[in-house]
Design brief:
Layout: H1 3-6, E1 7-8, E2 11-12, H2 16-25, E3 27-30, H3 36-50, E4 61-63, E5 77-81, H4 83-86, H5 94-107, E6 111-121, E7 130-133, E8 147-153, E9 164-167, E10 180-181, E11 192-193, E12 203-205, E13 213-216, E14 222-224, E15 233-242, H6 243-251, H7 262-268
Antiparallel strand pairs: 1-2, 3-13, 4-5, 5-6, 6-15, 7-14, 8-13, 8-15, 9-12, 9-14, 10-11
Length: about 280
């Protein structure tokens, strides 16, 4: 099916083969989830976030490369957590609605939007790297951990500018891999990393085109390299999790905000997201 025929208003048609790939590999690549004109509408506000015309307080606007001493103009990975909180006009936008239909098609009913996030790798920033990790290592574990994290390419995402890479099938391992702080100090930089052996693990890069989406599960190991190009690598993430899990997160005071109190983060054993 061509992307034009798969975009049906608020929905995007996922094929049985794509659902099978998602559960087999831990992720799936969906083509043309947003058309060019639909993407341009979101892109205008996306760039307003990058220019700081839409105010985002505290650490919800930060450098995800782990250097909190830089000024915003120096950030290697501009990270905006919960943009829909700070720009209410985005709530319920077309991307969110189509992503919700994708999440249901891949993971079944009963999922709700847990968080959204913007991740923009600045040009010529080879340190704009996300180490290997599994998302569930950051989060509370509940009886229903189903997750569909939708990752929209606002720019073509390539090997040269730091596209996602996956350890295919790692989500089917019986336990999560051991994780450790990427910087050695969790309170200064919350990122976690795990080990992936590229000589033994089935590592696959996932270059995708502008308007395409990858969707990955909570347990698949993934990461991405730096940006060696003259252009930005912009991504827009929305993550859907079971309603019961999101309710338990909120009960414990965790919203996925980097402004959550550190005591709350320690109590639930989570800290945030990284791509």
């Amino acid at each position: 099916m061509e992307p034009e025929s798969r975009r049906r208003g608020d929905r995007y048609v996922v094929t049985p083969e794509e659902r099978e790939r998602f559960h087999r590999d831990g992720y799936v690549h969906l083509h043309g989830v947003l058309a060019e004109d639909e993407l341009r509408e979101l892109e205008r506000d996306y760039d307003r976030f990058l220019r700081r015309e839409i105010a985002v307080p505290g650490k919800d606007f930060c450098d995800m490369s782990g250097d909190y001493q830089r000024t915003p103009d120096e950030y290697s990975i501009v990270n905006v957590m919960l943009p829909r909180r700070y720009h209410a006009a985005w709530q319920g936008n077309l991307y969110e609605r189509r992503a919700a239909s994708i999440a249901e098609a891949l993971q079944g009913p009963g999922l709700v939007l847990d968080y959204d996030q913007l991740l923009a790798k600045r040009p010529f920033k080879e340190d704009a790297v996300f180490g290997w990790h599994q998302d569930l290592a950051y989060w509370i574990v509940t009886p229903d951990t189903r997750t569909a994290t939708c990752w929209l390419a606002v720019d073509d995402s390539t090997l040269e500018n730091g596209c996602l890479r996956f350890a295919v099938g790692s989500h089917r391992e019986p336990t999560l891999r051991p994780h450790r702080p990427a910087s050695g100090d969790r309170e200064k930089s919350h990122a976690l990393v795990c080990d992936v052996d590229e000589t033994r693990d089935c590592v696959r890069a996932a270059p995708i085109r502008r308007g395409d989406v990858t969707v990955h599960s909570e347990r698949v190991a993934h990461g991405s390299g730096g940006n060696r190009t003259a252009g930005w690598r912009r991504a827009y993430v929305v993550a859907f999790r079971s309603a019961a899990t999101v309710a338990e997160e909120r009960r414990r005071g965790f919203t996925h905000s980097h402004n959550d109190e550190i005591a709350v983060l320690k109590s639930v054993g989570v800290a945030g997201e990284s791509r």
